[in-house]
Amino acid sequence: MSLAIRRVSLEQDREEMIALLIRNFGPIQEERFAWRHIENPAGVCWSWFAFDSNGSLHKAPVALVTVFPRNMRVGRKRVRGGQVGEFAVDATYRSLGPAVQLQKITFSPVDSGDLAFCYDCTPHDRGMSTFVRLGMRPNCRVNRYALPLRCDPYVARKLGTGAWTKPLVAAGNVLLRARRAKRGAAELEIQEFQSPFGEEFDQLDDAVPSTELIRASRAAQDLNWRYRADPMSENTSASGASGTYHTLVARRHGELMAFSVFFVQSDGITSIVDIFGREFSETGPALLDGVIDMSKKLNVSSIYACCSEQGELMPLLLRAGFRERERTARVVAYTRKNGPKPFDADLRWSFTQVEVML
Amino acid sequence: MHDTERRSQAIRSYIVKQFPVARKESLRDDTQLLTSGIVDSLGMLDLVRFLEESFMIQISDEELTPENFASIACLATFVGQKKSEFEVAAR
Q: Helix, strand, coil proportions of chain B in percent (round to 5)?
């Protein structure tokens, strides 16, 4: 058995692609198909089907992989990168060979010069096997951090929900609420923000000094696409959890300094999707306080956030009382073998959830 | 001892030594290595390295298929084919 690979036509192969996505990643594929694959401001994605080459190319595909274009900032430059996703192989074809073949095809938009680089975020060590085979190493690692706000879900899981656990839960919740003091930031006003993202976000994206960083663009068009144009964003996260997105902005004398987007799941978990701004050592903690306050009001039990080991968010999370949990992604980037490199080894990968999520 | 048998034995010894799950199961020549979870994708990389070094063969990405790596019997046959390809090419 070997695989034959061909580029997907997003129009003609739409139904087949959606069927394969549903088979491998669950429902809510059709609703987001155009938004995710075609309407992205960074461009239309590249997808490939793999077929068992013992059969005909007209048979059903057995595997799929996609590269989603991403507007990125590398140093101060705007570049178009790509994120690998929708890596799906039907069960009988799951082994290293087909995976390596698919992984290699994702490099082709970089080799052709359409993208400056592409990156893949593998969630576990097993996912690194294709890269090990290809002699590639992770460029950065992204970890999840957690801040518990209520202990009742933990107590219920460990000890049940009997009446005798109530005093324990009450005492635990008081301790969790009391353990951290707010760090007020001078003249910063934290507000909820529900409008479309406008020009001030473009200005913020330009103003944040990212001379040594690799990060996603936070230009208004990218933010509007991700958080406002997603047809499911009113009640479903990008990963399919039900809940609601919220945006907080930090302003000084009316000027936008920073913002955070977070998703409050209906099961009582807040996920900080994005947090970004200038004077981040001051605005970051103020926004984290805002997210924590709002989550408390919404009776959230825990707040999760992701950030790369080299990211500037990590020390702020630790200072706010978050604790490191598991590794959520190993980020491996591919750049063209010949020709100028889009970034050098000195640049830090400043990744949060927004760079990792699809 | 027949060549294929000798190869099977060498591959079996390596798998039993290297993969803890294999020690718990009674490993036959037709035991499914991939679908039973004895060898995962990272384990497959170790196995490839072992095969290349022990049998002096080169395995391409396209050959890393479930067909070639499904069981000890499949691996022994695959290695046999690679060895004879090499011998023909070397003649």
A: 70, 0, 30
- Report phi then psi at A170, rounded to 5: -60, -45
What is the C-alpha to C-alpha distance for residues A224 and A227, in angstroms, rounded to an integer?
5
ipTM confidence score: 0.75
Instruction: Judge contact between A86 and A21, C-beta under 8 A.
Output: yes
What is the structure's pLDDT at A190? 96
pLDDT digits (tens, 9 = 90+) for A155-202: 777 778 777 777 777 777 777 777 665 666 678 999 999 999 999 999
Judge whether residue A55 has pLDDT over 80.
Answer: no
CA distance A137 to chain B (A): 14
Residue A105 near residue A82 (C-beta atoms within 8 A):
no
Give the span between the Cα atoms of A257 and A94, in whole angstroms.
47
- What does the DSSP assignment read for A176-222? HHHS------TTEEEEE--SPP-HHHHHHHHHS--TTEEEE---HHH
Query: Distance between the two ends of chain A, CA-based, in angstroms?
Result: 31
Q: Please, which residues 240-259 of chain A have a Cβ atom closer than 8 Å to chain B? A: none
Q: How far apart are CA A29 and CA A328, in angstroms?
A: 23
In three-state form (DSSP H/G/I as H, E/B as E, the rest C), the secondary structure along A308-356 is ECCCCHHHHHHHCCCEEEEEEEEEEEEECCCCCCCCCCCCEECCEHHHH
Q: Which secondary-structure segment (H or E) carries A303?
A: strand A302-308
Stated pTM of the model: 0.88
Q: Which amino acid is at B90?
A: A
Amino acid A58: pLDDT: 57
Decide: residue A199, CB within 10 A, 0-12 exposed, 13-18 middle, 19+ buried. exposed
Helix-helix angle B72-90:B3-18, to 10 degrees: 130
pLDDT at position A184, please?
A: 62
Q: Does B40 touch chain A (CB under 8 A)?
A: yes
Task: Give A99's strand partners.
Answer: none
Alpha-carbon distance of A198 to A194, in angstroms, equals 11
Q: Is B16 exposed, middle or buried (0-12, 13-18, 19+ CB in 10 A)?
A: middle
Instruction: Measure CB to CB from residue B44 to each of A2, A128, A129 and give the nearest one.
Output: A129
DSSP class of residue A228 equals I
- Kindly report the number of other CB atoms within 10 A of residue A60's CB atom: 12
Q: Which of B44, B48, B65 is closest, CB to CB, to A1?
A: B65
Q: Do B65 and A97 touch (CB under 8 A)?
A: yes
Residue type, A201: F
CA A267, CA A300: separation in Å to the nearest integer? 8
